[in-house]
Design goal:
By secondary structure, the protein is α/β, with parallel strands linked by helices. Helices cover about 25% and strands about 25% of the residues. One of its GO terms (molecular function) is oxidoreductase activity.
């Protein structure tokens, strides 16, 4: 059995933020990620040369209104640029033909230079090479007689840890990871009923040779009642690689990839004309097909932005040995980038208060 002072289940932004805070306090966290990559709901589209082409998960931050985001942007020296919103939008399905219409912008909306994966790379950079292990699906956490917890990984030796931080989506934890008995009875309900933000969403990045919409005085925005994209935005990179980004309205059970790509191009051609007929690529990311992001419960009912979750999700369990820190546990911007940063840092700080070694190291530094 392997040994770890702190095991973190999930290498999304919340889990990696917690890992970095632990590392800076002198502890050696072990991060276990079920999938082959790190980042969770943050994923970038990359060219063959590794260049950034777009975001397949979250796109935006709002630094003027998200102090935790601004704090970490400053700490990690990550630059942002304004989301392009100049010009009219296209309203699709509001009249017999698509029509141009000014739409109000969103003050403060910004994108990261190089994409949201810059958060992931920057958080993970100071961690030792052995600190993050991918392809490690956790199936169970059990309490040991010696007061520690055992983290059981499919087809691998269990990890014995002093404390465990669960940073995976809460509904995924509820459905796929067995937790110890004798937990607070309200915890199970909180895990089951807290929706995972955007978990069932599919997103599309459509790349072009030229940002033709800008030359026509358009913002690249589409608001549509007919779809398949119900919302489209300019997604040109800070380096000038032209692209559009859209949210898919098609129900998850009807998202046949090739048919959906054809329908997306047809919609963009309907809205923008012949210039949109021949994109360089149409990349789809259907998060509903990712079993470590989207739980079965996230596929039923309307998409719902997570409210502030019950306090039981921000408390220690099993004598403060078991903690939760998914983005949806945050008290501010739950489910968003800010929520992930806030939850990861707050959970790590709470755990550090319980560890004399970390407290001594932190005070000495």
């Amino acid at each position: 059995m392997k040994e770890a002072s702190i095991a973190i289940v999930g290498a999304g932004l919340a889990g990696l933020t917690a890992a970095r805070v632990f590392h800076e306090a002198g502890l050696d966290p072990l991060v276990l990620e079920a999938s082959p990559r790190i980042g969770g709901r943050i994923e970038s589209l990359q060219g063959e040369d590794g260049s950034y082409l777009g975001d397949l998960g979250p796109n935006w931050v709002w630094p003027p209104f998200q102090p935790v985001v601004q704090h970490w942007l400053d700490r990690l020296s990550l630059p942002v640029f304004d989301q392009y919103e100049r010009g009219d939008a296209i309203l699709d399905g509001f009249a017999p033909q698509p029509m141009q219409q000014p739409l109000p912008g969103q003050y403060g909306i910004a994108r990261l230079v190089g994409g949201q994966a810059q958060f992931i790379q920057a958080m993970a950079k100071p961690l030792p090479d052995t600190a993050i292990q991918t392809d490690q699906p956790v199936t169970q956490v059990t309490a040991r007689s010696d007061g520690r917890l055992a983290v059981h990984v499919n087809h691998a030796p269990a990890i014995c840890a002093q404390r465990v931080v669960m940073a995976a989506p809460l509904r995924v934890i509820h459905e796929r990871i067995a937790l110890p008995d004798h937990l607070d009875p309200t915890l199970d309900q909180a895990l089951r009923t807290t929706p995972t933000w955007m978990a069932a969403q599919a997103k599309a990045v459509i790349r072009y040779r030229e940002p033709f919409w800008r030359g026509r005085g358009l913002s690249g925005r589409i608001a549509s009642r007919t779809g398949p994209l119900f919302e489209v935005h300019d997604h040109t990179t800070s380096g000038g690689a032209p692209a559009l980004f859209g949210f898919v309205a098609t129900p998850y059970e009807a998202r046949e990839p090739e048919a959906l790509r054809r329908a997306i191009v047809a919609q963009l051609q309907r809205c923008f004309g012949q210039s949109a007929a021949h994109p360089l690529s149409v990349t789809l990311r259907d998060w509903a097909t990712d079993p470590w992001i989207c739980a079965r419960a996230d596929l039923t009912g309307p998409m719902e932005h997570p409210r502030v979750a019950p306090d039981v999700l921000r408390q220690g369990h099993l004598d403060d040995r078991l903690w939760f820190c998914a983005a949806e546990t945050a008290t501010q911007s739950p489910g968003l980038i800010e929520g992930a940063l806030a939850a990861g840092e707050a959970t790590a700080r709470a755990v550090l208060k319980l560890d004399p070694r970390a407290r001594i190291h932190h005070e000495a530094s």
